[in-house]
Amino acid sequence: MPSTAHRTVRITSRMQENIAGYLFVLPSFILLLIFTILPIIATLGLSMTDYQLLSPLRFTGLDNWQRLAADTRAWTTFRNSLFITIGAVFFNNTLGFLLAVGVNRALPRGFKTALRTIYFFPYITTAASLAMVWGFMLTKDRGMINWMLGQIGIAPIGWLSDPSVVIWSVVIFDVWKSCGYLMVLYLAGLQGIPDSLYEAAMIDGADGWRQMRYITLPLITPTAFFCLIISSIGAFQIFDNVFVLTGGGPGDASRTIVMYIYEMAFNRFEYGYAATVSVTLMIMLIIFTRIQFWVADRWVNYE
Length: 303
What we know:
Blueprint: H1 4-46, E1 49-50, E2 58-59, H2 63-69, H3 72-103, H4 109-124, H5 127-137, H6 144-150, H7 166-191, H8 195-203, H9 208-236, H10 240-245, H11 257-267, H12 271-296
Antiparallel strand pairs: 1-2
Helix pairs in contact: 1-12, 2-12, 3-7, 3-9, 3-11, 4-7, 7-9, 9-12, 11-12
């Protein structure tokens, strides 16, 4: 049986290890507290006030929430954000996965590197400059897209002026810009699948489709789940793409909820109401993400 002195040394050593661990975590916790937790608490408090830049803070209780419930513009922007999120998440992940499968094939190393660079380059380029280029390409009268469609007999489309089409222009631009990033993530997931599984399947006579169905798709689901989470959160908070490409127009046809928050806060200086809309967006993101985690238990394979 160990002596009391020996037990004291062991307890002291464990405490020192714990203190060292807490000290390593402390900088990250301080940053999290300053830049995440405290702003969330401040936004929750601000959502129950009437605060403008040149007027004193006034507590209003649930007035902002009642205003939001009757604000048709806000719900229009919520609907636009949801539509963009569904479209962008679906096409970004589908195209990103297909590009990853193509790049992961037995290609010369230099050619494979060039393809990865070409597909990933739009993601690291500033959204404002890309949106300006796409704005010229999507112009109804002189845009390259309509010129190419005209060569096959399709009439010019108001990509940025037709309320029923403009939101698709936002989705197309976001997919072109972001699918390369998801391609890299899917490519990493594909390269993490052991080659021995494919070799065993080939010995058993499995063709390419069966290998894809019974090996690739089940084992890529953890990567796919991660890509779905980050792409849906990013699409819900889209701002710069739409701000430069369409300005939210025509009318509110392409205005997102983040653009509406920006308008309320920095154009109208209604910070209390902007905070209310921000809290609503946060709640929607939490619910949306929680649903994805709940559904993931049924299709994600971690084995």
